[in-house]
Design goal:
Elements (H helix, E strand, L loop, with lengths): L1 H20 L1 H25 L2 H8 L3 H23 L1 H8 L2 H6 L4 H7 L2 H13 L1 H9 L2 H34 L3 H16 L10 H7 L3 H15 L4 H35 L5
Helix pairs in contact: 2-4, 4-8, 4-9, 4-10, 4-11, 4-13, 8-10, 9-10, 10-13, 10-14, 13-14
């Protein structure tokens, strides 16, 4: 446990040294949910009006898109930091040192997304909570907190998926960044933040049930309709946790195997 805490501390120093140095990037990150929601709502208002969305879905469009933007950015913040780290280490020329490090591989890959996860909580506190409080009153504080927690769960549940994708991708191709730029948007679509899986073809819908964050997203969307967590929503949350537990050891094993292969073949740095 002490080893894990040391790795987590190192990741926090590394990430927040960059975050605090580039304060404009932090401000932009916190403003993204508002900007994305405003853009979608303006376009939607021009096409059919906000009332049309409420009539067809039963959900306030402002709450829906602010929550959706928050969850999407939360998942992206955590998953991108994890999936791009091997390429980052390779480009910086530090990958050989990482491979020679005595640090537990499981500890390292679990620690990488945790600093961004803290930013996810801050993002929810500055976007979801204020909007829910303004639109729903004091009762919106609890509702907003539930959405924030579901967003955190979605982010955490995407860590094993990211590890699994990394293990498969980095072992099978050399142009990792090209493939990542294709896989990443596909995963964002399948998560179902802006395109609910109920509207997907049955094959796509089946795939989404295998993605832990997609189940959390549906639970959040159902919650927005009634501001209550029904039995099915709890079932989706349980499925999210169960799939994450299943994927985690598989993802770590794949990454360890990839690193073992690099130790045998060597790392080419440029």
């Amino acid at each position: 446990m002490r080893g894990l805490l040391e790795v987590v501390k190192a990741e926090y120093v590394f990430v927040y040294g960059d975050v605090l140095r580039r304060k404009s990037a932090l401000v932009s990150f916190l403003a993204y949910p508002y900007m994305l929601s405003a853009f979608i709502l303006i376009v939607g208002y021009g096409v059919g009006g906000l009332n049309a969305f409420t009539e067809k879905t039963g959900v306030d469009p402002v709450l829906f898109y602010v929550s959706g933007s928050y969850i999407m950015l939360s998942v992206m913040a955590v998953s991108d930091d994890l999936m791009w780290r091997p390429d980052f280490d390779h480009w910086m020329g530090t990958l050989p040192y990482v491979l020679l490090s005595p640090v537990s591989r499981a500890y390292r890959y679990i620690a990488i997304p945790l600093p961004r996860l803290t930013l996810v909580v801050l993002l929810g506190a500055t976007s979801v909570m204020p909007v829910f409080t303004v639109l729903e009153g004091l009762g919106g504080i609890l509702a907003g907190l539930i959405v924030v927690l579901i967003g955190v769960l979605a982010s955490l549940s995407f860590i094993p998926v990211s590890m699994l994708v990394m293990g498969l991708l980095y072992r099978s191709t050399g142009e990792n960044w090209r493939v990542l730029n294709i896989v990443r948007p596909l995963l964002m679509i399948l998560i179902g933040v802006y395109y609910p899986r109920q509207m997907m073809p049955w094959i796509g819908r089946l795939v989404t049930y295998l993605l832990p964050p997609s189940n959390s997203v549906e639970a959040a969307q159902r919650f927005l309709a009634t501001l209550q967590l029904d039995t099915y929503s709890w079932l989706l949350i349980g499925l999210t946790v169960a799939l994450s537990i299943v994927y985690l050891p598989v993802g770590i094993k794949g990454l360890v195997a990839w690193e073992g292969r690099l130790r045998l073949t060597g790392v080419r740095t440029e």
